[in-house]
Specification:
The chain folds into 4 domains: 61 residues; 86 residues, Nuclear Transport Factor 2, Chain: A (Roll); 143 residues, Nuclear Transport Factor 2, Chain: A (Roll); 112 residues, Glucose Permease (Domain IIA). It is 25% helix and 34% strand. The longest helix has 30 residues. Strands 11, 14, 15, 16, 17, 18, 19, 20, 21 and 22 form a 10-stranded antiparallel beta sheet that branches. The protein is of the alpha+beta class and 446 residues long.
Length: 446
């Protein structure tokens, strides 16, 4: 019966590509061939004078496929691509459909999926010979479609998902300039460069800490659809060597379906705090208890770090916590203070705008404001302070507490899931390491 389903599916795909005048002949031939395939040869009796009616019992899925084939044969299809400024009404209008059609489809069950459209998405309109919209295919991506079908005076919707084939790929590189440029030379997609920076960003400052000769290697998911490259998935395992020290990370998904990155021993790569609360910056003034104030020209302790950045640069919460202050003062300008448990407090000053209010709970890397120059500031920058038990510490050098490690009860599951990934990463790294050892003379070339 599987062969019959494949048979039906094949003709369905073929019929959609041919002109209607050829389809009558094609579908007739298809049904005839199917009948011959199903009718047992042993039942043929050449001497019979009266032919008996042929009865064919079809599996439900085969019958449904033939029904779809017949319906598709009767429909005229038109494609529309969502452009900038398009909405459902403009797309239906271009397909010669009425506002009534728009209302019937959008007000149907699951019609809310049509409310937020994005450029590049695709619509396929299938109409019958009377101009009635019988099928609407909203193609969100190559992997996701929403099919609206007209039956008994209304539309029903079905979400169709496709699964890509996933293969494991490997990349490695040596830092020659910046992480981004070196990773691009290694043919690493932007998505994975950012993910790698986020994984190791708690241990390595990618603006100030990396040096020429540092290196990286990683395995990741490569996605294919019908034999063609579709995109990339997640990093599975990675290593980054900075100033001779190697950091390793591996992806693990717990029994709740939550994925995070851990060291091979099960310690979270994610610390309780970000080292810096913004992505694009330069340090314009460091932590200095005897700094001369640029405006007042007096020796005044600078109990934080100033990160110069363009006005409007996003500022993130350094860790999970509660907003204990959010306001404005003449000296600080727009400011936000976040309390993290009983021990830690972070302060963000001179903001252009604040995105949180007092009493609000925030998560690590949640947007809390943007860089500005409000208050006593000579230019756009973020003044960031880090306090431990009420005492100011240098945000760049203070030891950051770890997030929760893998629970002991889950340790065996963790090791069983991650050890093969780390072994695979090591196997990919081995040829490069051997070549480097030979070049350095630490391994006999023979």
């Amino acid at each position: 019966m599987d062969n019959l389903q494949k048979f039906a599916g094949f003709f369905l795909s073929v019929f959609r590509e041919f002109p209607r005048r050829h389809l009558i002949f094609a579908i007739t031939m298809a049904i005839s061939v199917l009948a011959l395939a199903l009718y047992p040869a042993s039942n043929v009796e050449p001497k019979r004078q009266v032919a008996e009616p042929l009865t064919i019992s079809l599996d439900e899925s085969v019958a449904e496929s033939l029904s779809v084939m017949a319906r598709d044969f009767e429909l005229t299809w038109e494609d529309q691509i969502v452009g900038a400024g398009d909405n459902l009404s403009t797309l239906f209008l271009r397909a010669n459909l009425s506002p009534k059609d728009v209302y019937q489809v959008s007000s149907s069950k699951n019609g809310q999926s049509l409310r937020n459209l994005y450029p590049g998405e695709k619509f396929r309109f299938g109409t019958d010979d009377k101009g009635q919209l019988v099928e609407l295919h909203y193609v969100v991506s190559p992997l996701e479609s929403h099919v609206f079908t007209y039956r008994d005076g209304s539309y029903s919707a079905e979400k169709q998902l496709r699964e890509p084939d996933v293969l494991v790929s490997y990349r490695e590189g040596i830092i020659q300039d910046s992480l981004y440029l070196s990773a691009k030379k290694a043919n690493l997609p932007d998505k994975l460069i950012m993910e790698m920076a986020n994984i190791f960003g708690w241990d390595v400052d990618f603006v100030f800490d990396i040096r020429q000769g540092d290196s990286f290697s990683l395995t990741f998911e490569d996605k294919y659809l019908e034999g063609e490259k579709f995109g990339v998935g997640n990093i599975l395992a990675a290593a980054f060597t900075n100033r001779g020290k190697t950091y390793k990370a591996v992806r693990f998904t717990d029994n709740q379906g939550v994925s995070n990155y851990y060291t091979p021993e099960g310690l979270s790569m994610r610390k309780a705090f970000l080292r810096t609360p913004l992505d694009i910056f330069r340090i314009s003034s460091g932590f200095n208890l005897r700094r001369k104030h640029p405006i007042h020209k007096k020796i005044k302790a600078h109990r934080g770090v100033d990160y110069a950045a363009p006005r409007g640069t996003p500022v993130y919460a350094a860790g999970d916590g509660k907003v204990v202050e959010s306001g404005y003062s003449k000296a600080n300008g727009n400011y936000v203070f976040v309390q993290h448990g009983q021990t830690y407090t972070t302060k963000y000053l001179h903001l252009n705008r604040k995105n949180v209010r007092k009493g609000q709970t925030v998560r690590q890397r949640q947007l809390i404001g943007t860089v500005g120059s409000t208050g006593y500031a000579t230019g756009p920058h973020l003044h960031y302070e880090f306090l431990v038990n009420g005492v100011h510490r240098n945000p760049r050098t203070v030891k950051l507490p770890q997030a929760q490690p893998i629970a002991e009860a889950d340790k065996a599951t963790f090791l069983a899931a991650t050890t093969p990934r780390l072994i695979q990463l090591a196997e990919y790294q081995q040829p490069t390491q051997l070549a480097a050892a030979k070049k350095d003379g630490t391994l006999n070339a023979n």
